[in-house]
Amino acid sequence: QVQLVESGGGLVQAGGSLRLSCAASGRTFSSYAMGWFRQAPGKEREFVAGINRSGLNTYYADSVKGRFTISRDNAKNTVVLQMNSLKPEDTAVYYCAAQYGLKYEVRDFGSWGQGTQVTVSS
Hints:
Blueprint: E1 3-7, E2 10-13, E3 18-25, E4 34-39, E5 46-51, E6 58-60, E7 68-73, E8 78-83, E9 92-99, E10 109-110, E11 116-121
């Protein structure tokens, strides 16, 4: 398994940008597809973006398509979520996780990081 640590969250005005990073420890990072998820207060954790092991295929929730970009660097054991044109409804704790199942759904991911808070003001 891998251990994951997120960073880069903060407070930003609507329309602004943030770049989240997830650092992985362990020698098997490239063996896992990776995902970003978020959880807003009172809501369930939801899928935001995913990337396969090579980084060639990416997947996005409809709510963030065209605004967010996921990427990874297997040499540096990192996965990044670039978030542009942020909206107040993007406010949540953001988590990265490794895929242990087959789908890009919460139940197929594990090794959750501690999360990083993103707050978008209107």
